[in-house]
Every structure is written in C-alpha cells, then in structure tokens.
Design a protein that fits this description.
mainly alpha; 2 domains; flat
C-alpha cells in the first residue's frame, strides 16, 4: 500500500467522522432542549424508554451523547435506573441508523450537499437555518468521506496478502472480534468502523463471513 493510499484513506475517514459529528451536532442544536424534555416525559415504561433511546440516538448520531444525557438525568433524580437501562438499549440500536444511511449509496449527492450546506450555513441569518445548513454540510461530508475511502481501498482488492489476512477473520473469528474492538477503541466510533467495512464490501474485498466477527467486536 502506497503512502498516497494511506493518506487518502485517513483523509476519507476524517471527513466521514467529521461529517457524522457535524450532522449530529446540527440536529441536536436544532432540537435544542426538547431532547431532554422528551427523555423526561416519555420514559414511563421500559419499552417506551427503548424507543426513546433509539429515536434520540438516530437524531443526534451519537449513543455516547445519549448516554451522557441519561446519566445527567439519573443524577438529577429525574429518571430511575430501569428507565435509563431502556434508553441505553435503544441508543445502541439507534446508532445503527448511520450504517443504514450510508448503505443507500448517495455519494452522487455529496458535493452538491457540501456546496448547499456551506451556503446555507454561511449566509443564513436565523439560527435554525444555520443548523439546517450544518446538517446538510455534515451529510455531504459523510458521503464524500465514504467515497474517498472506497477510492483508497480499491487497490487493496488486488493485494493477495491483504485479502488473505481478511479471510483469516472468517476462519478464526476471535481475530475479527479483536480487530473490530481495537479499531472502534482507537477511532471512538462504531459507525466509522462500519463505514470502513462497507467501503471494503463495496470493493468486493470482504463478505458477510469476514464482516460479522468484526461487527461483533465493533459493538
């Protein structure tokens, strides 16, 4: 793997993570304090708590942020442990929404979204419009980062050593679990790890037998 390929992959991953964060922050700002009010109001039974955790995490694109809010509400006495457990369970389901989004292959919309999002963010007067611009910009950066990673990973399909290394994960699943665990631990984003896997799958480098152990470690 050449140095250019490594830099392209790192740059693509950076754009992907930043786009995901920007989109989540924009959505969180647009919702404002309504998220906390929603958590306080709709957590009267465990099933509803799971649904709330799923929806909130899907909106802000961060299970960690949802967990932090829940801890704050528990410490304030506004939520009990049973309600908190339900929300955290839902948060871990909601964090998969990013993976579902990038599976739609909307890379052709990436650059227009970046342009439109930047224009809306820079030239809008109202805060809500600026937040919408931030969301659109984050969406575009996420998909542009995904596209950049796919370009960087394309040469790996022609490297027998790398393909053989990945194939070992299906034969020794514990290695795949460890790889997923370490990757997510380093970049602090399970969605980003899944994004890399989807980029590899898009180039035909990994199949389901290789991806599953990594996904287990990722979570």
């Amino acid at each position: 793997m050449s140095l250019d390929t490594v830099f392209t992959l790192i740059g693509g991953l950076g754009l992907f993570i930043y786009g995901m964060r920007l989109m989540g922050e924009g959505l969180e700002k647009a919702a404002g304090d309504k998220l906390k009010s929603l958590l306080e109001l709709l957590t009267r039974n465990r099933f509803l708590s799971v649904i709330v955790g799923l929806v909130v995490t899907a909106i802000i694109q961060s299970s960690s942020a949802t967990t932090v809010m829940v801890v704050g509400l528990v410490n304030a006495g506004l939520m009990n442990l049973n309600q908190a457990i339900g929300i955290i369970m839902g948060a871990n389901i909601g964090t998969t929404m990013t993976a579902q989004l990038i599976a739609f292959k909307l890379t052709d919309l990436a650059l227009p979204a970046i342009g439109i999002g930047t224009a809306v963010f820079m030239f809008s007067k109202q805060k809500t419009q600026k937040f919408i611009g931030e969301i659109i910009l984050g969406f575009g950066l996420l998909f542009f980062g995904m596209q950049t990673m796919e370009i960087a990973l394309k040469p790996l399909a022609k490297m027998p050593e790398f393909v053989k290394f990945l194939a070992s994960f299906s034969k020794t699943p514990v290695l795949g679990v460890l790889a997923g665990f370490l990757t997510t631990g380093i970049i602090q984003s399970s969605s980003a790890t899944i994004g890399i896997l989807q980029a590899l799958a898009g180039q035909g480098i990994v199949d389901i037998s290789i991806a599953l152990p990594i996904l287990f470690g990722d979570n």
